[in-house]
Amino acid sequence: MKHTPLRHRVGVALLALAPLAANAADLTVSAAASLTNAFKELGAAFEAQNPGTTVVFNFAASDALLAQIVKGAPADVFASADQEAMAKADAQKVLAAGSRRNFVSNSLVMIVPSDSMLGLKRLADLQKTEVKRVAIGNPASAPVGRYTKGSLVAAKVWAAVEPKAVMAQSVRQALDYVARGEVEAGFVYSTDAAIMKDKVKVVATIPTEAAITYPIAAVSTGPNPDAARKWLDFVVTSAAQAVLARHGFSKP
Amino acid sequence: MGFDVDIHKTVRSEQRAFELRVRFKTTARRSVIFGPSGAGKSLTLQALAGLLTPDTGHITFDGEVLFDRAAGIDRPARSRGFGYLFQDYALFPKLNVRQNIAFGLQHGWRNPSAKVSSGPVEHWLRAFELGDVAAQKPSELSGGQRQRTALARALVHSPRALLLDEPFSSLDPELRERMRGELDELLQRIDIPVLMITHDPDDLDWFGDEALYLRDGEIGERPPAAPAKERDSANV
Amino acid sequence: MDTSVWITLALTLKVAGCATAINLVLGVAVGWLLARRQFIGREFLDAVLTLPLVLPPTVMGYYLLVVIGKRGWLGHWLQQTFGVNLIFTWQGAVIAATIVAFPLVLKSARTAFESVDPQLEKAARVLGLSEWSVFFRVTIPMAWPGILAGVLLVFARSLGEFGATLMVAGSIPGRTQTLSIAVYEAVQAGQDDTANFLVAITSITCIAVLLAAGRLAPGRPQLR
Fold first, then answer.
1. Which residues neighbour C94 within 8 Å (Cβ) at sequence distance 6 or greater?
2. ipTM for the complex shown
3. Contact, C144 vs C32, CB < 8 A?
4. Fold annotation for A3-105+213-246
5. Pick from A141, A169, A182: CB nearest C88
6. Nearest chain C Cα to A165, which residue?
7. At B235, is the pLDDT very low, low, confident or very high (cuts 50, 70, 90)?
8. Which of the ends of chain C has fewer CB neighbours closer than 10 A, N or C?
């Protein structure tokens, strides 16, 4: 076999891999589950403004996302639903220096299935015997769970509610449990409750110890730092903030 | 006295349907149903034993109705009182000779223990000279010992008739001669009617007081002498 | 971990044990039926009952959720008639694990029964045994190694069941959080030490079960 044809073949093979290499123009955003709908809309807008870049989303509970990043998942941006998860990220040294900033805030609400007849209005009502199960995000892996637990502890009802708690993997799963009527009440963000207006109703806004502000940062080991920086600048523009506001988020 | 049989059964397999139409009466001490492979011999024997249910007809033995479709009678195999010798003896492979012989004497859900012993069991062990191998399993026995164990197992119930399914067809010619001799001798000692099915004309000579010729599912006249090849052909 | 690993292990063994016991009875009954009885639609039934083996567990979990959830037709009926809700209970976890693992014992049982020489059963009948006696004294002794291998596979599968269980029973420590779900939670929360420990326990248990199942599969040369 002659050498020239072989080299030629190898060259052609490498060219065929070029489209894969072009995925260096991917921007991978790992974001808290509650940002799903808003970020998808923002992603489309970002792609329109930055042709050649594809935004790839990864939505889950914030700590779960962090666990992936720490183990080397190639995310460029990390958007968390509370400061604690971002602080953990900082401690594990996975953030690009100076990139961290707050970009929206949210509020915690207590919801019930829309056909609920129990007349629940306050946290103390959860102690009623008719309330058998309450959907709460798992505090070990979801910020919404931490906010909820903090508020329930402050209201001195955590001990009564904990035995009834059904741990959800993320705030969206907590929402689903309530929407299906499998639990009598649940805790989600106001932005999530708005998505299933027909299946759940908000009965109370729950004050939290600290305001619920969402930090966002670039991941130091991310493969596309340029696009990451652009995204960070993008989400605080007035156009992006308007989109976020439409989904129920407030300014940071 | 004896068998009075008139049955019809359609047996369907994927390729074809086989019509069994068997009618005969026999009072002989030893009867042989003789026919080539595929004639329906095994089906007939199983129907007599209650292991196969005919579509229509009746089966009577010694005046007792065992099966009568029209009258809605169908006595299960366990209550017909026959002994059955299967072609490969169908000995229970994990039980020893004693346990095999005593198998049907024990009702309920547990098998007899390895050391089971009782009058009838000991009698047949002695009669068939199986005492030395009584604790062995079928795989450890010779062909002759297996046949005797299977016979003892059937006879321990004092059956009112013995049904034999091609007892020698899986043996080589030498062994066959010897086994025929043994079986003949054993049968002379016990005095109950015997019905045997076979495709081997030699068996006919040895055993048949009365011969019934079965071909394509029907009893008929003796066919012309079968060519030598057919004697060793495989069974249905 | 707040809940002790041993409680989680005990719960997992309880769920897997119940699922296995139920599947033993169901698998033997249905396997026998498919092996020994001819009826129209027999192979179709076999295929339908084998479906949980090929459907993704989350899909199975979703079907179960829709059927036995509070708004599902079966769940609603159970709620009305017995005041019972299976979602988020360990009994719900048992149901999920049972259904997902059933095909494993069904296949093994059917094959095992089909391998029993019908002549032996016929011999037993003629010797005077009732049908139940034939079943317990002839059929089962010859079929049980194959059945047992299937049962052990069911146990191993139930032990590791995740997708359907998570959907139906949720993740409630001490009540429905089985070992595999606990591993998932630990990883999500960044608790690697806990995750490693749980993974080790689960792996050892499953390997032991598979080795035992391999010994009992028919056809393997016996040392005895």
1. C15, C18, C19, C22
2. 0.87
3. no
4. D-Maltodextrin-Binding Protein; domain 2 (3.40.190)
5. A182
6. C172
7. very low
8. C
